[in-house]
Design a protein that fits this description.
42% helix, binds magnesium ion, DNA-binding, globular, 399 residues, DNA polymerase, domain 1, five-stranded mixed β-sheet, DNA-directed DNA polymerase, alpha+beta, MutS, DNA mismatch repair protein, domain I, DNA polymerase IV, four-stranded antiparallel β-sheet, nucleotidyltransferase, Dna Ligase, domain 1, disordered C terminus
C-alpha cells in the first residue's frame, strides 16, 4: 500500500474549553462539565481540573472529593454542536475524507493532497490556526501513515500538540510506548504481557509469534501488527445522517391554526431543500409539537414513494400538524414546532416517476429546482411558494 497521510484531530478538553471560552472568569480554574446530581459522571474536565486527578467518565461524587473547589457545570450540548459544526467545516475545507469520531474528534485522509504530503506539519499547523481563529479552541493533531499511529500521536502531543510520525520514524516513535497504549486491547491481556516482561511496543514487536500465541492466543498477529504500527483501515467519511430536521421555538406561544400551517409549509420546504442539497430522499415525514407545559408530541407518516420534493413533505407535515391541532382542547397553544425527515436513503438519480414535466410531481420538481437556485442566491427564507405567504412576521421564531 502506498504511503498515506492521515491526521487525527482532537480538541483539547472540548466541553470544558468551550465553557472557559464563553465565560472568561473560568479561565485558569478547574472546570468540570457533567457530574452534577447524585449519579452523574464527568463529561469533560479542564486541564486545571485534571491536575487534581479528575477525568472524564469519573463519578461526579468522586470528582467533588478530589477537587472541592472545582466549578461544576451542566453540559450545553447545543453550544458544543454549534462549535463542532465550524470545526468540521475547517476539516472539510481540507478534504472530503473526514471520519468524525465525536463532536470534537476526527480522522482526515490527506493522501491525495500533494501540498500536504510535501509539508504535512505546516498543513496541520494551518488547520490548528484556522480552528483557533474561527472558534477560539485549541486542537491537537497527530500526523501519521495510518489511523492507529495518528491517534497515538495526537494523544501524546496533548495539550496543544502537533506530532508528526513519518513512515521512517515509526519504530522510534512506537518502540518506547507502554503496551497499555495498544488499541482495543483489554486490561487482562496487557497484564498477561507485563507478567511475561513484555512492557513496551518494542518488546512486543521482538517477541516471536509462537511465544506470543502461547500468551494471548488468537490476538497475537493483531498485537504484533499494532506494535509494528501496521494499520490498513481506511478513513471512512460519515455515514448518511439518520434524519434531517428543523424546528422553531416561539417567543410567544403560537395560538393560530393557519399560522401553524404556514410554518409547517416553510419548515417542510427547508427540510426538503436540505435533503436535495445532500442528495437524499426520505421515506417518512414526522412533526414535533410541544405545548407550553413542555409535553412533546410526535406524529409521523410514510410517503408512498421516497421523496425530496417540497410539496410532498409539506402536505404530510401540514396534515399531521392539523390532525394534532384538532385533537387538542378548545384553545391549543404551541411552544415549539418542528419537521423531521426520516428513513433517509441516497438519491440515486433513478426518478422515473418524477421526471415527466406534465405530471404534478414533475412540476413540483421543476419548482424545487428554481427554489434551490434562488435560495443559493438570496438565502433561506426570502422565497417560498405562493401558498405559504403571509402571517410570517407573526410566527417569526425567536430561535
Ligand atoms: Mg477531545
Amino acid at each position: 500500500m502506498a504511503d498515506r497521510l492521515i491526521l487525527h484531530v482532537d480538541l483539547d478538553a472540548f466541553y470544558a474549553s468551550v465553557e472557559q471560552l464563553d465565560n472568561p472568569e473560568l479561565q485558569g480554574r478547574p472546570v468540570i462539565v457533567g457530574g452534577l446530581g447524585g449519579r452523574g459522571v464527568v463529561s469533560a474536565a479542564s486541564y486545571e481540573a485534571r491536575r487534581f486527578g479528575v477525568h472524564s467518565a469519573m463519578p461526579g461524587a468522586r470528582a467533588r472529593q478530589l477537587c472541592p473547589e472545582g466549578v461544576f457545570l451542566a453540559p450545553r450540548m447545543a453550544r458544543y454542536r454549534e462549535l463542532s459544526a465550524i470545526v468540521f467545516d475547517c476539516f472539510r475545507a481540507l478534504t472530503p475524507l473526514v471520519e468524525g469520531l465525536s463532536l470534537d474528534e476526527a480522522f482526515l485522509d490527506l493522501s491525495a493532497d500533494p501540498g500536504a504530503r510535501e509539508h504535512p506539519k505546516a498543513c496541520a499547523q494551518g488547520l490548528r490556526e484556522q480552528i483557533r481563529a474561527r472558534t477560539g479552541l485549541v486542537a491537537s493533531v497527530g500526523i501519521a501513515p495510518n489511523k492507529f499511529v495518528a491517534k497515538l500521536a495526537s494523544d501524546l502531543g496533548k495539550p496543544d500538540g502537533l506530532v508528526h510520525v513519518s513512515e521512517a520514524g515509526l519504530r522510534a516513535f512506537l518502540d518506547p510506548l507502554p503496551v497499555e497504549r495498544l488499541w482495543g486491547v483489554g486490561e487482562a491481556t496487557t497484564a498477561r504481557l507485563r507478567r511475561a516482561d513484555i512492557r513496551s511496543f518494542g518488546a512486543l514487536r521482538r517477541t516471536p509469534e509462537p511465544r506470543l500465541r502461547a500468551l494471548v492466543g488468537r490476538q497475537a498477529p493483531r498485537l504484533l501488527a499494532l506494535a509494528r504500527g501496521d494499520d490498513h483501515r481506511a478513513v471512512t467519511p460519515e455515514r448518511t445522517a439518520r434524519s434531517i430536521s428543523t424546528e422553531r421555538t416561539f417567543d410567544r406561544d403560537l395560538k393560530d391554526r393557519s399560522e401553524l400551517q404556514t410554518l409547517m409549509a416553510d419548515m417542510a420546504e427547508q427540510v426538503a431543500a436540505r435533503l436535495r442539497s445532500k442528495s437524499l430522499q426520505c421515506r417518512t415525514v414526522a412533526v414535533k409539537l410541544r405545548s407550553p407545559d413542555f409535553r412533546t408530541f410526535s406524529r409521523q407518516q410514510s410517503l408512498g414513494q421516497p421523496s425530496d420534493a417540497g410539496p410532498a413533505l409539506r402536505r404530510i407535515a401540514q396534515s399531521l400538524a392539523d390532525e394534532w391541532w384538532r385533537q387538542q382542547g378548545p384553545r391549543p397553544r404551541l411552544r415549539l414546532a418542528g419537521v423531521v425527515a426520516r428513513d433517509l436513503l441516497e438519491n440515486t438519480g433513478q426518478m422515473g416517476l418524477f421526471t415527466g414535466r406534465d405530471t404534478a410531481a414533475g412540476k413540483d420538481r421543476d419548482t424545487d429546482r428554481l427554489l434551490d437556485a434562488a435560495r443559493e442566491r438570496f438565502g433561506e427564507g426570502l422565497l417560498r411558494r405562493g401558498m405559504a405567504r403571509g402571517k410570517r412576521s407573526d410566527s417569526e421564531p425567536g430561535v
